[in-house]
TrEMBL record:
<dbReference type="InterPro" id="IPR036265">
    <property type="entry name" value="HIT-like_sf"/>
</dbReference>
<feature type="domain" description="ATP adenylyltransferase C-terminal">
    <location>
        <begin position="158"/>
        <end position="262"/>
    </location>
</feature>
<dbReference type="InterPro" id="IPR009163">
    <property type="entry name" value="Ap4A_phos1/2"/>
</dbReference>
<dbReference type="Pfam" id="PF09830">
    <property type="entry name" value="ATP_transf"/>
</dbReference>
<dbReference type="GO" id="GO:0003877">
    <property type="term" value="F:ATP:ADP adenylyltransferase activity"/>
</dbReference>
<protein>
    <submittedName>
        <fullName>Phosphorylase</fullName>
    </submittedName>
</protein>
<dbReference type="GO" id="GO:0005524">
    <property type="term" value="F:ATP binding"/>
</dbReference>
<feature type="active site" description="Nucleophile">
    <location>
        <position position="139"/>
    </location>
</feature>
<dbReference type="GO" id="GO:0009117">
    <property type="term" value="P:nucleotide metabolic process"/>
</dbReference>
<dbReference type="InterPro" id="IPR045759">
    <property type="entry name" value="Ap4A_phos1/2_N"/>
</dbReference>
<dbReference type="InterPro" id="IPR043171">
    <property type="entry name" value="Ap4A_phos1/2-like"/>
</dbReference>
<dbReference type="Pfam" id="PF19327">
    <property type="entry name" value="Ap4A_phos_N"/>
</dbReference>
<feature type="domain" description="Ap4A phosphorylase 1/2 N-terminal">
    <location>
        <begin position="2"/>
        <end position="148"/>
    </location>
</feature>
<dbReference type="InterPro" id="IPR019200">
    <property type="entry name" value="ATP_adenylylTrfase_C"/>
</dbReference>
């Protein structure tokens, strides 16, 4: 149901001009046998980063009716991303403000998995600005996309530090317990607190119906290109053809390794 409403509201938003996609058509760049997806960003990126938008929290009620999809449990709501990188682009948001840098809780996973309904859905989470988050109110993201790096991920060939868990069925409680274990073993908890909550070092999570990947982060920019959680599945966003040429020459996997922790 979330996706059906998401498609319907996205079509209306595109027609009315309320939805402002950040991307152009997909460009496929093959490198090392992997078909990476690259998008050149639109002028809407300037709107997203304008002061009036950047300082506004769109995840608190009252919600924009054109963005509201549904309530998920007592603590979360599903909203449409006004600035999608893929259309539709769904957000699972905490109703109350919780810092994006604080640890996820079981209710977050309970709500998040509600949107992972088929093999084409990718969930991703950016813990803080260094991990690619532009909004510090707790939210997990959902898009439908091909997964260029999935084979590399499942074969254990990623060149940077990560944790991968494979499973046959999505189980929020099991995912959460594994998440807690990895956060501890990778020493991603900080001693500082924000709003009374523990803070975490930056990391990304990718989540599908078959596996979950957690990647510690050390920087969010290499050259002039910023690193986002969705990059780690093989999707990239650049601001110009010059940036695309630079990234292709620099190397997609080298870029990801620089954003993470080399093995």
């Amino acid at each position: 149901m979330l996706w059906d409403i998401g498609y319907e509201k996205s079509n209306k938003g595109l027609a009315s001009g309320e939805l402002l996609p950040l991307i152009t058509n997909d460009l496929i760049i093959e490198q090392n046998g992997i078909e990476f997806i690259v998008n050149v960003e639109t002028e809407n990126m300037k709107v997203k980063h304008s002061p009036s938008v950047a300082t506004h929290d769109p995840f608190v009620s009252p919600y924009n009716p054109s963005a509201y999809i549904n309530t998920i449990g007592e603590q979360h709501v599903c909203l449409l991303n006004k600035f999608p990188i893929v259309v539709p682009h769904l957000l699972i948001c905490a109703k109350n403000y919780i810092p994006q840098t604080s640890p996820l809780v079981l209710k977050d996973f309970d709500a998040w998995v509600q949107g992972i309904t088929d093999d084409n859905v990718l969930g991703f989470f950016n813990s803080g600005a260094i991990a690619g988050s532009s909004q510090m109110h707790r939210h997990m993201q959902l898009i439908r996309t091909s997964l260029p790096l999935e084979k590399t991920i499942l074969q254990g060939l990623l060149p940077f530090k990560h944790d991968l868990i494979k499973f046959e069925y999505l189980n929020a409680a099991e995912l959460y317990q594994h998440y807690l274990s990895v956060m501890e073993s990778m020493q991603l908890y900080m001693t500082s607190r924000i709003n009374g909550l523990t803070e975490c070092h930056p990391y990304n999570i990718l989540l599908t119906q078959r596996w979950m990947l957690l990647i510690p982060r050390t920087k969010n920019q290499v050259g002039e290109i910023k690193g986002h959680g969705v990059n780690f599945i093989g999707r990239f966003l650049v601001s110009s053809t010059e940036q695309l040429e630079w990234l292709e020459k620099y190397g997609f996997e080298r870029f990801l390794t620089d954003c993470g922790v080399p093995k």
